[in-house]
Amino acid sequence: MKKLFITLAIASLSVLSVVRATTITENFSADPSQNGWQVFGNTNQFQWNSTNQNLDVTWDSTQPNSYFYHPLGTTLTRNDDFSIAFDLKLNDIASGNEPGKTGPLQLGFGFLNFNPLNPMNATSTNFMRGDFAPDVAEFDYYAHGFYTDPFFDAPAASVPSFISDDGFDYAPSEAVAPYDNELPTNQLIHVTFTYTASNQTAVVFLTTNGVSVGELPPLALNGDNGFSDTNDDFSVDTFSVSSYSSAGDDFDSVLAHGSVGNIVVTLPPPAQNLSGASSNGVWQIQFTDCSGWLYTLERSTNFLSWTSVSIPTSGNGTNLFLQDTNPPGDKAFYRVRADRP
């Protein structure tokens, strides 16, 4: 169980709140399976390289959907900040590895929905990234390829992609500059992908040896042809390095080999926008919570010992209120305890 404390120090009229984002990090210095990482699908496509301290990956669209993944322990939507950073080295990449499928299929790095209660979750047989795949928020890279019906030459591309829970896809076309961007092979590329919920905008930076090889302009979900209203949303609970199958796709394929390292996934803190006030003798704290966490209000009069003054309450991704129905007459200090079961 992971435990965090979000503190409000209440003395007279002053309020101090301390919140921190949570992170998932992996530098592959030790076996990642001992650090919460798992593989779904073809395990041979993901091999820990203990010598190079990275993950050797084969992206092969002839294989079933396969993921090297880590559960987030919470659920992200378009209302949550997040960022992804990782090192990518491509040894080789090409589309057209399947007869008749000469268009490019993407390499995926980002968030998927693994909830078994969702019949279209990423592990289900009807989740087809090249055709219909709801609940996706990821960075994609496409090799150069072309389509013959009609003929269309598609350059290599780096694209931030979002798919809503009802399957509405929002990403810039991989064929339109400045997203057409062929990444070098046999060079280490550092990728950062940041999403800011306040303006619902995604930004991608690509560097090699500290030199930019691609800076993609902000993609706003609420922009033209974007997610039109709050009903267009994604719900994701897992970070994944993804090799997608071409099943259900008549045009696209990919075969690539490379490695991934130094993964850092930064998630929003479990409680944000904390505020507190007393009303009719009841002390109440309000904050924006996250799904997948349990919250308990704790009180202290000396910062040395703490007492729970509310029952553990599950977050639901909206606003949560916790109360101390019997506060002391003198000053008190409060903190919110956040537990990830």
Tell me about this structure.
- Helix content is 0%, strand content 53%.
- The chain has no helices and 28 strands.
- The strands form six sheets. Strands 3, 5, 6, 8, 16, 17, 18 and 21 form an eight-stranded antiparallel sheet that branches. The chain has a seven-stranded antiparallel sheet with strand order 4-7-19-10-11-14-15, with no helix packed on it. Strands 1, 2, 24, 25, 26 and 28 form a six-stranded antiparallel sheet that branches.
- It is elongated, with a radius of gyration of 23 Å.
Name the helix and strand elements from N-terminus to C-terminus, one letter apiece. EEEEEEEEEEEEEEEEEEEEEEEEEEEE
Based on Cα principal axes, name the global outline.
Answer: elongated
CATH class of the largest domain: Mainly Beta
Number of domains: 2
Question: Which segments are poorly predicted (pLDDT under 50) over 5 or more consecutive residues?
Answer: 9-18
End-to-end gap: 5 Å
CATH architecture of the largest domain: Sandwich
Radius of gyration: 23 Å
Strand content: over 45%
- Helix amount: under 10%
The name CATH uses for the topology of the largest domain is: Jelly Rolls
User: Helix/strand/pairing class, anyone?
Assistant: mainly beta
What count of helical segments does DSSP give?
0
Q: Would you count the extended β strands for me?
A: 28
Q: What is the arithmetic mean of pLDDT? A: 86
Largest sheet: 8 strands, antiparallel
